[in-house]
Amino acid sequence: MHALVTGGTGFIGSALVPALKRHGYSVTVLTRTPKESAPEVNYVTQLEDVKQPVDAVINLAGASLAAKRWSESYKAQIVASRVAFTERLVKWMLSQSQIPSTFLSGSAIGYYGDRGGEVVDEGSHRGQGFSAELCEMWESAALALDKREDCRVCVLRTGVVFDRDGGALTEMIRSFRFGVGTWLGSGEQYLSWIHRADVVRAVLFLLDEPRAVGAVNLVAPHPVTHRDFCRTLSARKPTLLNLGVPDFAARLLVGEMADELLLSGQRVEPRALQTLGFKFRFESLDSALIDIVSRTKR
Questions:
Q1: CA–CA–CA angle 192, 194, 198 (5° rounding)
Q2: Which of 118, 140, 166, 197 has the most crowded CB, counting CB atoms within 10 A?
Q3: Domain layout of the chain by residue ranges
Q4: Which helix (H) or strand (E) holds 202?
Q5: CA quadruple 249, 254, 255, 256: dihedral positive or negative?
């Protein structure tokens, strides 16, 4: 079996590629930064360099939402790196003599917009705001293949991914190293999180599960508020005090992104994964943080 992974050198992709190898796949990684190919992994910089037939495509490519302030030009770059690229990827897939039988394409729980304490799942309607509109366009580009009987499509609405050495947790844990626990705004906004190990396990599960189609929420079963996150992490990395960062300070630091990503939240259930029988390794935030913090110390 041969898998093509876009975004395969990123935070999720770097953990997924070796797992795919262990799962029996040969892997081609499409990346802007070429690397020396290794056994069962080939790195290419353009789709035209993929020579062997591909059985599965896993699309994780996209410019970081949190890399810089959201100017109009950077928002256009975010859209192009997801929507326009996915459209190009789908066009390439359709041009192949053997169309990949499985397409797992990235999305995010930003699809649901700011929903307060409302519980949402894959059947919930799209929310409001740039992130929600971006996710809808991104998913629509991938679902252009959905009507084909020879290609199964899943869009991966991924939550906030936690692990050591990267991702959101690197920033969220920063103040704790100085004995200060923090949350943003009221702290009552929900954080739908998932351990990176469970993201990788879920992707492998979805590759093997023929019943998996359409939207799939990649989140742990028990979302928490930002205040709860602070309290849970404080039990693992003791703090001298816990305090909130006012809304205006977050907006001053990062602008529009604060309202979209930091001061709002979604209380998301992984209904599709649970219905299909997927078993999480890290169901509770505490279990995830115990694992991550213990490995960080080594």
A1: 150
A2: 197
A3: 2-297
A4: helix 196-208
A5: negative
